[in-house]
UniProtKB/TrEMBL annotation:
The protein, known as: ActR/PrrA/RegA family redox response regulator transcription factor
Span of domain Response regulatory: 13-127
PANTHER family reported for this sequence: RESPONSE REGULATORY DOMAIN-CONTAINING PROTEIN (PTHR44591:SF3), STRESS RESPONSE REGULATOR PROTEIN 1 (PTHR44591)
NCBIfam families according to UniProt: ActR_PrrA_rreg
Positions bearing 4-aspartylphosphate: 62
Keyword Secreted: no
InterPro entries: ActR_PrrA_rreg, Bact_response_regulator, CheY-like_superfamily, HTH_Fis, Sig_transdc_resp-reg_receiver
Length: 184
């Protein structure tokens, strides 16, 4: 059973920005069924056009798009309409990118595959209590390893540049990169 949007929501405009056409189209249809006036955009360029032409009240934006980073769309949407509610989606979830998404203006960050009900809940719920602690949280070693991997990717897999930015010796970084990810 699909629950309709609450009647107090007047502006039901919603933009879905995702370069995966089947996913984007399914999401647009599912959100329309829930009462939104949803449209889709295939990437950063179309997302930026929508932000400047007709900024929506709600948006769902994928983090990694073929033509750039979804954070650019989040920032443009937030500038065009400060009261917008944006949820970031990503298949590459990590803590650092979630923090960045929230700093840029997203109200929530969901890992793919997220269904329409999860997205609607994230868009509509104000003052949600903190979720319960995870049953099996990542270990500190795993968080450290993921952070190092993220910086390594951001430095285009350049070991020397990554070591400089992380303020560690290059050989130490090489040893860490050659090991498998820690468990948990």
């Amino acid at each position: 059973m699909v629950e309709p949007l609450p009647s107090h929501i007047r502006d039901r405009s919603l933009l879905v920005v995702d370069d995966d056409a089947p996913l984007r189209n399914r999401l647009v249809r599912a959100l329309e069924q829930r009462g939104f006036q949803a449209t889709g955009a295939a990437g950063v360029t179309e997302g930026l056009e929508a932000a400047s032409e007709r900024p929506p009240a709600f948006a769902v934006v994928d983090m990694r798009l073929e033509d750039g980073n979804g954070l650019d769309v989040v920032e443009a949407l937030r500038d065009a309409r400060p009261d917008i509610k944006i949820v970031m989606l990503t298949g590459y979830g990590n803590i650092a990118s979630a923090v960045t998404a929230v700093k840029k203006g997203a109200i929530d960050y969901l890992a793919k595959p997220a269904d329409a009900d999860q997205i609607v809940a994230a868009l509509l719920e104000d003052d949600r209590p903190l979720p319960p602690p995870p049953e099996d949280p990542m270990s500190a070693d795993r968080v450290r390893w993921e952070h190092i991997q993220r910086v390594f990717e951001q430095c285009n897999r350049n070991v020397s540049e990554t070591a400089r930015r992380l303020k560690m010796h290059r050989r130490t970084l090489q040893r860490i990169l050659n090991k498998h990810a820690p468990r948990g």
